[in-house]
Amino acid sequence: MIPSFLPLATCAAALATLATFTTTEAEAATRYGVACIHNKTQHTINFDIRLGKDGSWRSYRLQPGWNRSFSHQYDKQNENQSPPIYIRFDSDLRGKTFWTEYKLERRAASGETCGEGKPYNFRYERDNQNFIDLKASS
């Protein structure tokens, strides 16, 4: 048995301080704002992304079952502000055109991966698989 030389209150205070330090140290600093788009359909989806209101549109293609992250590196640690992401896509799979546009949010993250970003899913509309939509998931 190891003898105890510190009063119980002192030990409890030391453990509480250690627990606080450990928890703070374990929380990673955020360096990116990340959004991730998943294709949960059986169709390849073409879409355009624009960063900020005045950015130019850039085209992307997402195969069924694939995902793609869009990240913004912060100027300083824990800044947690990113320019908005705008997405537009043709939501009509019948060969006609029906443009849908959304403004996406990002999630503050320590890295740039889809696992860290705010997830969005391309899915078929509930009652009609001729149309798709993009919805945020939890």
What is the strand and helix layout of this fold?
Layout: H1 8-26, E1 32-39, E2 45-51, E3 58-62, E4 67-73, E5 85-90, E6 99-104, E7 107-109, E8 118-125, E9 128-136
Parallel strand pairs: 1-8
Antiparallel strand pairs: 1-4, 1-7, 2-3, 2-5, 5-6, 8-9
What low-confidence regions span 5 or more consecutive residues with pLDDT below 50? Answer: 18-26
- Shape type: elongated
- Number of helix segments? 1
Report the average pLDDT across residues.
Answer: 86
Describe the structure.
It contains 1 helix and 9 strands. It is mainly β and 138 residues long. Strands 1, 4, 7, 8 and 9 form a 5-stranded mixed β-sheet that branches. The protein has a 4-stranded antiparallel β-sheet with strand order 3-2-5-6, with no helix packed on it. The longest helix is centred in the first third of the chain and has 19 residues, at 8-26. It is elongated, with a radius of gyration of 23 Å. The termini are far apart. 19% of the residues are buried.
Features:
138 residues; mainly beta; five-stranded mixed beta sheet; four-stranded antiparallel beta sheet
In short:
It contains one helix and nine strands. With 138 residues, the chain is mainly beta.
